[in-house]
Amino acid sequence: MAVKLKENIYWVGVVDWDIRDFHSHETPFGTTYNSYLITGEKNILIDTCKEELCSELIFGISEVINPKKIDYIIAQHSEKDHSGCLEDIVKISGAKVITNEKGKELLSIYYNTDNWEFIIVNDNTTLKLGDKSFKFILTPMLHWPDNMMTYCIDDKILFSNDAFGQHFASSKRFDYEIKNYSFHYAKEYFANILMPYKSMVPDIIEKLKCLELDMIAPAHGVIWCKYINNIIKKYEDWIFNVKNKAVIVYDSMYGSTRIMAHSLACGLMERGVETKVYDVSKTSISKIVTDVLDCKYLLIGSPTMNRNVTPNIGKFLTYLMNIRPYDKIGVAFGSYGWVECAVNKIKTVFLELYYKIVEDKCLTIRLKPTTEDIKKLKEFGRKLADIDYD
Ligand code: FEO
């Protein structure tokens, strides 16, 4: 279904209501693949969608123009959620494909591009296509080497591809229709997809501050219109600001590690630290890491199970290594029966993430915490909050 953004500019994307797992990022409400169509002297399509949803994309385009009449496709990113229909649309229309060198390289591996006519752009290239002028902003490794954004100079719209996206399917297309939800899902998206590359973001934000922006139109989720400054400010916060917040993630077999987690939480809370406690077996990892994004303390607890962490904590640690939330104070804890292994496994991950590790004997407990152990854990939580780490 086509939705008008401005005169001659339309959203023609696809709502994927059914997807629930986007590369381990839980998507309880699905997502959208946003394609945009600009009509006029030349017809320009920005990005496509997953291959299996191609007929829906073509239907949306057809509500505005005959797809055969597309002159250019701007391929901002070769990942298949945005490039999956390129072959079909190029075949239908014979459109020229505008991308960067890296985009061309990756697209040429995914697809048979022998007969495609490419126009290669670099950072800051401007192109006049019919009656519209565009400036291209390359954003490599946000989150693939080929990512780029497209700024429509005449209409002051930034097509930002993956940046500023949200995995959130709804019948709404604009931020003012679902304000708070969109920030929530933007944060979750940032934490799960962009966190490993967040060091790239400040330079891009600086570039964007030089642009007049009426809209930021990402490749997933709602289009930012009313809350453009807010979402840019949120990105800056998520990059730079660490809250006085602790996230405690644990798994427990018979409750001992759970008691440890809760006792540590009591100590931290007594010192006014905002504290979140998650049983990893009951909460999706993508939700937990959204809280990890801006926390100061990350405490991970696991019982020792067959000389290792539990499989649930193992999965969480793998995810953590994948998204790499650096600059935390790490605490590993857990119970054990006859040989302690889990705490050391967790510490290995902390070391790889360059965490400042805080240790204490009270953090490993044999089988069941005593009343004295609980007191010590609460005291550890208080001390953890009191230490000056600079
Ligand atoms: Fe939404 Fe990196 O693709």
Ordered list of secondary-structure elements with their pairings:
Elements (H helix, E strand, L loop, with lengths): L2 E4 L2 E3 L2 E3 L4 E2 L2 E2 L4 E3 L2 E3 L5 E3 L7 H9 L9 E3 L5 H4 L2 H8 L2 E4 L1 H10 L7 E3 L5 E4 L2 E7 L9 E5 L4 E5 L17 H16 L6 H9 L5 E4 L9 H13 L4 E6 L5 H15 L3 E6 L5 H8 L4 E5 L9 H13 L5 E8 L5 H11 L3 E2 L6 E3 L4 H16 L4
Parallel strand pairs: 8-9, 9-10, 10-11, 15-16, 17-18, 17-19, 19-20, 20-21, 20-22
Antiparallel strand pairs: 1-2, 2-7, 3-6, 4-5, 7-8, 12-13, 13-14, 14-15
Helix pairs in contact: 5-7, 5-9, 8-12
Structure description:
- The chain is α/β, with parallel strands linked by helices and 390 residues long.
- It has 2 domains: 3-240, Ribonuclease Z/Hydroxyacylglutathione hydrolase-like (Metallo-beta-lactamase, Chain A, 4-Layer Sandwich), CATH 3.60.15.10; 245-383, Rossmann fold.
- It contains 12 helices and 22 strands.
- It has helices at residues 54-62, 80-83, 86-93, 101-110, 179-194, 201-209, 228-240, 256-270, 285-292, 311-323, 342-352, 371-386, and strands at residues 3-6, 9-11, 14-16, 21-22, 25-26, 31-33, 36-38, 44-46, 72-74, 96-99, 118-120, 126-129, 132-138, 148-152, 157-161, 215-218, 245-250, 274-279, 297-301, 329-336, 356-357, 364-366.
- The strands form 5 sheets. Strands 1-2-7-8-9-10-11 form a 7-stranded mixed beta sheet. Strands 17, 18, 19, 20, 21 and 22 form a 6-stranded parallel beta sheet that branches.
- Strand 1 and strand 2 form a beta hairpin.
- Helix 5 crosses helix 9 and helix 8 packs across helix 12.
- The radius of gyration is 24 Å and the shape is elongated.
- The model has no long low-confidence stretch (mean pLDDT 96).
